Amino acid sequence: MVYIKRCFIVLLMVLPFILFFSSCKNGQKTKDDAIKQKVITQTSDSSQSRIVKLNNKLFSVPSPYQAAIFINDQELPYNSEVLNDLQTSHYNSTFFRSANLGVYGADMAYITLYEQSPDAMNYFSVIKGLAEKLQLMGAFNKSTIERIENNIGNQDSILQILGNTYRSADGYFKDNDQEHLACVVISGGWIESMYLMTHLGEKVNDALIQRVGENKIPLDNLLELLAPYTNRDKDYEKLVGKLLDLANIYERVSIDYAYIKSETDPDNKLTKVQTRTNVTMDRATLHEIKEKIGEIRAFIVKGEAV
Asked: Which one of 35, 49, 143, 152 has the fewest beta carbons within 10 angstroms of its own beta carbon?
């Protein structure tokens, strides 16, 4: 039952990020839109599923909940000190407000998994405040706030409400030609997830090397999504530059894939392709990745050049 519950919650957390990907790629539709055959590629453990094929192009950034699951599986105690500060008054631009909307979303996934109700309420209030400054009023109406307050101890309900909230935010970005902000939200969530994984606890093991190494591909996806906006202003340029530095470190990481026999459902025109991944990375490279993630995260949460 725990396994099934996790799969359900992962789905709730993944959906908003899939929608944000759609927002980032808006306007790039092809004739393949008409193809009904869907192909889903995932690891053999469905709780780690994270690759979705949309319009003949793969995009993959793990849900923040996957990082929280990994941390919890390492039997690490809850530590609120590593989370982003609740003070947001220094986020004076849409770039930093959007990036930290993603950061706080990842923090909420961690908080909710550990069932820390007081922190969950505080961090939701911060998310609400940032959303209001980004004019995402529809995503955080009175009804949503009341549902959060009434379900604060219910992990599944909180994550579902958050999923709906981020989907509403995505709709606003698309309707107002602000796909670039959707991409920044994704970036903030990914960076914070990586930060939590690499900075909670000092233990380095094969599981951490595997999980951090697997994020080489999502990083490439982030860079592709952000590329059209690199010259939008100095903050976008700095973020992309720092992510490129991280990608250069990841060049020393190798990933091998072993494909398991696919499963086909002819009636629903659905093919499920399962894979196993094996990461090769030395500890020195892991340390460099950790340090660079910390640098990028500092740039985002401080709201200024670092």
From this structure: 143
